[in-house]
Write the structure tokens for this entry.
Amino acid sequence: MILHLDGNVNPYYVQTLSMIFFPGATFGVAEVPGEGVAEVTVKVYPDGEGACTAYVAIKLNDRVSEASETISYAQPLAIATHESIAVGRAMFAAGRELLGHIPPWGILTGIRPAKVASALLEDGKGILKTKRILRDEYFLNPQKAALATSVATNESKLLRKLPDNTCSLYISIPFCPSRCAYCSFVSYTSPKLLSLTDAYLAQLITDIEHTFSTIRRLGQRVLTVYIGGGTPTMLSADDLARLLSTVRSHLYEDEAVEFTLEAGRPDTITAEKLAVAHSYGVTRVCVNPQSLSDEVLREIGRKHTVEDFYRAFEIAKNSGIPDINVDLIAGLPGDDFKSFSETIDKVIELAPSNITVHTFCVKKAADVLKNNTSIYALHGADAAKSVSYSQLKTKFAGYRPYYMYRQKNTVGNLENVGYAQEGHEGLYNVLMMEEKQTIFAVGAGAVTKLVAKDEKGRSRIKRIFQPKYPYEYLRDDHLERIRQTDEQILRFFHRQPIEPTTT
């Protein structure tokens, strides 16, 4: 796709808007005009003294669609600049005319819809007016406007209870037993990297111990712990015990009101491993089949069967761990509305405390793209029906949507939503999305997110990235990386850095 930009225009925002109508679009400098290559022209300019106008033209082959939008600077906005809203509305109108497609999330892109809804609610708009503004000014369809408002309302209830001086801890186990067809992290499953598991775990434990030391120096207490992946239950029961015992030994008795183990793959879950998890205080476990169709599981390269999921779920149910989350994905290759609706019905019958419904997100390095070039679907008809069905079925079964996020290149430009029975919401998920609390992260690919208030009460946020791959994480400069990370953390909180221990 070729972009022509003029004026006060954010190029990344225009790219994300373009991808609403042209899923999978690329914006490399090598793009040249030609058959099937879309060209988007965006101009933003002052319109009188108190307004701005955005003009958008979209050209595809021999067709051109144009639209413009003028916004007064006096018009109050919940989030974003007047220029970006004007561009979004003009792009929406031009794309709708050219392609006959009405995006379900309107012009909201690059921002979580619940964040916009939260801003409107905090501004005193109320639930009904918030829904109306989302529909009329941001062009969300009524169902999505209602969903965003519900998520914002439920998130707010959880965050009102957030204690002061608390943080969370994320621990990364970036290994899987096999690679799914939709995954782009091929090297995480190679035999060479899997052989690094012992060394990785040893270094991870050292980092966990040091991170707890930093947390105590800051005077903070740990509210939630989340062990994610990859597939953490790829670890043996003994290795899992080493990891969990390290975490538990550094927690105060009344800390970690939520302790999550993302078990993930049903074929890695055993009664012994979950007994270990329960003995060290894990309160929440994820058992993720993605689909309850053996045909779909084979299509996406999962190595487990539907029967494996039922076995793993029964183990989790009998483990004593109070909360079970089940992850599903709508719009998977080989899936359709019939098979997905059967999946959601069967999962609801099991009554897990949490159900998370993702929409299939196409990663550009995933194997599925090599064999299915039509995977990018503008309308995502079956996926859209599946997502809507899951929203209705979970509501009637007593689940409430409590967190939501969206990604680029999802089928049908749809969303990912976490549903929970009342009182069983995954607090870590909300904290991660809402950026109301610092989340310390250790392990390959982990990202620490520091959050603090400035003198005017506004949030300051800083991210610290760990090396992406295990072999990078195990480099010889590990102690220097710890020192630099520690220094960034302490300076962020206006504390004097000190040398890390060499354990």
